[in-house]
Write a structure and sequence with these properties.
32% of the residues lie in helices and 23% in strands. The chain has 677 residues and is α/β, with parallel strands linked by helices. It has a seven-stranded mixed beta sheet, with helices on both faces. Strands 22, 23, 24, 25, 26, 27 and 28 form a seven-stranded mixed beta sheet that branches. It has a five-stranded parallel beta sheet with strand order 9-8-7-10-11, with helices on both faces.
Length: 677
């Protein structure tokens, strides 16, 4: 007897009182679980997320949140066999499951790494440098990102029940938002299984994650101006959400990923005997058959030069004929069933619409042999390849969300760009070419209509992740028909969930608010060199004002000879004098920085373990022979590393001359021992 799916709401599992609707195994038609539309109180779930989950998540720093995601991913990996078995029942082959399950875990690991490497161990992100607003320097501004006191609600599609949840959860959690997950009914049993393992682990703060395995009626009604709603699914449902009063006038931030008639363009430079031709054919077939074409990034439109259309069509048909369609858990199966019989019927209807202006060149929408399964009981379908007639409109308007693609011929590169744009906005497009001029014309012409563009050829093929693979470090989304949303993108995705605010005030106020020293703020010059202080002792604003050093002609000559940098401004008096910027011999910029290091460094062993970089180096005024320089070095930002005995300290370095004029500014990056708290 199959069990009805439970929701996790307000700290406990909720079991519906009714029996629910059967969710069928895509391979056999057997009931896997029951789905009830009668769920817990969605308004109470939202309130619980805001009042319990939100404060608990926001109490953690970005690094602490990132580390928890890493631990969650490691925990989930121990249950891969369980998830793989359930994934097969959705119709996913082992390869498909790797994309969904392993891809989801990889996304958690990626966001964890980006969060720890690129964000401060704090709860505030600074956006760019401070902006001076007055001549005296007493009135400045700083853009900051802060966490919203709301909830991130995700309403997901059926095709990626694991990755689709985790790729939204990761940036929201690092941004400080609790999440409510609403999975699509068809594959909700896999999503719920993953959530159950996360909840059992106890790794995330209570209220940080809830799952609604029921209808979402009333959910959007409960959202407000600090909440984010992310939707993946059909354009029609996306339009309904866009017109919801809470989105139109209630301030709810809506992110939509909808239909996408993605295209792949074969460059006019590619011949049948070129490696690029084979790469193109392999990529198209892979995108048609992975997840049985049920990917929002799958190739739907195959744009090829008119003289190559027949050769491409024949090569695709030949390769498709070798694809084994069958039960998802069979080792030889290349393409499993669609997610449900209803979805198969929907794809068949779309194919019928496409055939209004396209002819069938491979496959049979109504019949297929299914290895290791009953083709009628399961949602099996043959890959379908179509060839568009001249002037066909349907391929640019109808998306068959399954193993279906259409060959469309073009006459010129400009026409290929125009055809790509007729999709009215796509998640991804790809171009296979070695011609750099073709690549520039296609990419610049198509970029406004695409969220991502892959340029593929023999040079990058071995490392390429492929047309249809969204990556955690790249933005995922697209304009127009594709929904206009944006997900992932590394730290960009984190900031997308936060509020950017311009804060104005005195430098000291901004330092106190942001936790990072602002130019013009107080400096603390003491008897102890800041390099003698560990992280527990060091404070923002701790400063050393160095002794002076006169830069001699001998210094300049020695540096030129020692380094080999004999640029005329440092070695040729006549040429240097003729340069309007210098008017004579000047010191190398890197000589100035090197001498500055000698002025501020404390040479004895101590808490400072290493210098690991210099950021934002600018040379402001030429330093001529005989000039006297000094350095003011100030602790600007302190970032303890989690699970390490040291942290990072960013120092503001200001090099001035004998007249007090700045000659160089930069940030010095050091690793410093933590010491006793």
């Amino acid at each position: 007897m199959s069990a009805v799916l439970e929701s996790y709401a307000q700290g406990s599992w909720f079991t519906p009182s009714d029996e629910g609707t059967p969710l069928a195994d895509a391979n056999t038609g057997e009931t896997v679980a029951l789905f009830s539309r009668k769920g817990p109180d969605v308004g109470a779930m939202v309130e619980y997320a805001r009042t319990v989950g939100g404060p608990a998540v926001r109490a953690l720093t970005f690094h602490q949140r990132a580390n928890l995601l890493k631990e969650v991913a490691k925990h989930l990996m121990a249950y891969k066999d369980e998830f793989y078995a359930l994934s097969h029942r959705t119709g996913a082959t082992a390869r498909d499951t790797m994309v969904d399950v392993d891809g989801g875990f990889g996304t958690l690991f990626s966001f964890s790494s980006k969060g720890r490497r690129e964000l401060p161990n704090s709860t505030v992100i600074l956006d760019g440098p401070s902006e001076p607003l007055g001549r005296a320097g007493t009135f400045v501004a700083q853009h900051v990102y802060t966490s919203r006191p709301g909830v991130a609600v995700q309403i997901n599609a059926f095709n990626f029940p694991v990755w689709g949840m985790l790729e939204k959860l990761a940036p929201a959690f690092i941004a400080g938002l609790p999440s409510i997950v609403k999975p699509a009914p068809q594959t909700a049993y896999l999503t719920v299984a993953v959530v159950r393992r996360i909840i059992e682990s106890g790794l995330l703060p209570e209220g940080a994650l809830q799952v609604l395995s029921a209808g979402h009626e009333g959910l959007v009604d409960a959202l407000g101006p600090q909440d984010i709603l992310s939707f993946t699914g059909s354009a029609s449902t996306g339009a309904i959400l866009r017109n919801h009063p809470n989105v139109v006038s209630g301030g709810v931030q809506l992110n939509v990923e909808a239909d996408s008639l993605n295209c792949s363009i074969l460059g006019p430079d590619v011949a049948v005997e070129d490696p690029e031709f084979d790469l193109y054919v392999k990529q198209v077939v892979a995108e048609m058959t992975v997840k049985a074409g049920q990917k929002c990034t799958a190739i739907r439109r195959i744009l090829v030069p008119e003289p190559m259309a027949e050769a491409v069509t024949e090569a695709l048909a030949d390769r498709l004929s070798k694809v084994v369609v069958g039960a998802a858990d069979q080792a030889d199966t290349r393409m499993g069933p669609l997610v449900s019989l209803a979805q198969r019927d929907e794809v068949r209807r779309s194919v019928k619409a496409l055939r209004t202006s396209c002819r069938l060149v491979y496959g049979d929408p109504g019949q297929v042999d299914a290895a290791g399964a009953d083709a009628e009981s399961g949602a099996f379908m043959s890959p379908i390849l179509l060839r568009a007639e001249a002037g066909a409109t349907e391929p640019h308007e109808v998306e068959a969300f399954g193993p279906v693609a259409t060959v469309i011929a073009y006459g010129s590169v400009a026409e290929a760009v125009e055809l790509a744009a007729r999709g009215r906005g796509s998640l991804v497009g790809s171009l296979v070419t070695r011609d750099e001029d073709v690549a520039r014309e296609v990419v610049l012409g198509s970029a406004p209509w695409h969220g991502r563009i892959l340029v593929l050829n023999r040079e990058d093929a071995k490392e390429s992740t492929g047309h249809g693979s969204p990556l955690p470090v790249l933005v995922h989304g697209g304009p127009g028909r594709a929904g206009g949303g944006e997900e992932m993108g590394g730290v960009r995705g984190v900031k997308h969930h936060m509020q950017r605010t311009a804060v104005q005030g005195t430098p000291d106020m901004l330092t106190a608010i942001t936790g990072q020293w602002t130019t013009g703020s107080r400096r603390a010059v003491g008897d102890v060199h800041p390099f003698r202080k560990n992280l527990a002792e060091l404070r923002i604003g701790d400063t050393i004002e160095s002794a002076e050093r006169t830069v001699t002609r001998a210094d300049i000559d020695h540096f030129a000879e020692f380094t080999g940098d004999t640029f005329y401004a440092h070695t040729d008096e006549e040429a240097a004098a003729a340069n309007p910027l210098f008017g004579g011999i000047v010191a190398h910029g890197y000589l100035v920085v090197s001498l500055a290091a000698g002025l501020f460094v404390d040479p004895a062993p101590g808490p400072v373990l290493a210098n690991f970089g210099v950021d934002n180096l600018r040379f402001l005024t030429p330093v001529k022979e005989g000039a006297t320089i000094r350095v003011t070095l100030t602790a600007k930002q302190i970032t303890p590393r989690t699970n390490a005995e040291y942290g990072e300290v960013r120092w503001d370095a200001l090099v001035t001359d004998q007249d007090g004029e700045p000659v160089a500014t930069y940030d010095v990056l050091t690793l410093v021992a933590k010491g006793e708290e």
